[in-house]
Automatic annotation (TrEMBL):
This is GTPase Der. Residues 17-181, 213-388 form the EngA-type G domain. GTPase that plays an essential role in the late steps of ribosome biogenesis. The gene is der. Belongs to the TRAFAC class TrmE-Era-EngA-EngB-Septin-like GTPase superfamily. EngA (Der) GTPase family. Associates with the 50S ribosomal subunit. It comes from the Bacteria. NCBIfam families: GTPase_EngA, small_GTP. It holds the Pfam family KH_dom-like. Keywords: GTP-binding, Nucleotide-binding, Repeat, Ribosome biogenesis.
Amino acid sequence: MARRPRKAMAALADGAARVAIVGRPNVGKSTLFNRLVGRKLAIVDDTPGVTRDRREGRAALHDLEFTVIDTAGFEDADAASLSGRMRAQTDAAVSAADVALLVYDARAGVTPLDRHFAQWLRKRGTPLILIGNKAEGRSAEAGLAEGHALGLGAPVAISAEHGEGMADLFEVLLPYIEPDGPVVPVVVEAEKRFSADGVELEADWVEPPAGPLKLAVVGRPNAGKSTLINTLIGEARLVVGPEAGITRDSIAIDWEWQGEKVRLVDTAGMRKRARVQDRLEKAATADTRLAIDMAEVVVLLLDATLGLEAQDLRIADLALSEGRALVIALNKWDVAEDQSRLFQGVRKALDDGLSQIRNVPLVAISGATGKGLDLLMKVAGEARTRWSRRVPTSALNRWFEDVVAKNPPPAPSGTRIKLRYVTQVAARPPTFLVFGNRTDMLPASYGRYLVNSLRESLDFEGVPIRLSFRGGKNPYVKD
């Protein structure tokens, strides 16, 4: 059995685990602190240096509970100065913590002070997790790539202000807070796969699932979400009825399917934003969005008697934008008419309506009778497996060389664009970084070409993929 870090074991014996938030001034530490404690306890302002003393609060991230510590922004100053005394408070917080979150501004990129702070923290011996804050939007992609240079692993991309990336933060904090200890990576044997030219591909490395399959059931009001979950677990755990909008809070239920642990989350129905006026419905919709953010797989439930509507596509797009694996379930299949035509029509509408991804898994079920539920759970598990995959670097670059040779990058105004190398920097969702020169001149259509080829050639069908480009020299090639 994997062992917990010794400091974390001691912390659990005394009470809650302790998590320190550290970083240079004005990177969003207090905003993240407020996000974790669920209240605006710490003063937040654009002016650097607002926080001086370390502040503690009781934090909850999904079902994790711990003590979080907000610290002053690190500044390299004389020990007797105010900045030096603030740094001493930060030092004390880090020394007492079981794990420290080193936060930097992903939009600004890695600064010399970030590098100095990272080097200073390594000497303290406390486990470090690198956090790229303010990561909303494409402007943060280059800064997130720069985070690898700190030597602390891939940065966890979040936006503390908007609540994005909290599911990923949950995953990296889990080994230091749960008593069972950190998950040890394991090699999972995959079925033999072959490239188009018949060459056997290397086995994939699958990131081990962190605990139960986290599955959120979402959809428009009265699509049958609560009925589906009641049928899955075999008891009337959730209130159901013909009225739309019965569910308001997101309800999490722990369950087992064929020996595998699952955390099911029932959510409130999501209507078109313009129609949401009631304060309680607004709060319920926000709770549903949080459930999507915390999930690994999102099951979008459609009412087969109504077909696919524009709001269903909006909900699907939200789940994919959050990087979650998505499965579409056609519910009330037992009472649907002209089933074959309906299924094919929904399939085509999904492929046309979800421009960023095709072939999202589509399953016909009946939450009332139980038809198709075993298939639904099987497809959801397979979706998480693809969502968690890491492709070996050698296999990835064999694919890359072949796909670039078949369709080289365009040469705008006669300027040659050279793509040199690709690496997978993260999974859950699969995230890739392409190195080359003049990558800023690449048209968006070429990026879509690479993403589509990734899905088809390397078995990422139906999974959201994040692909970004990095200009400059290939760091894997020595002079």
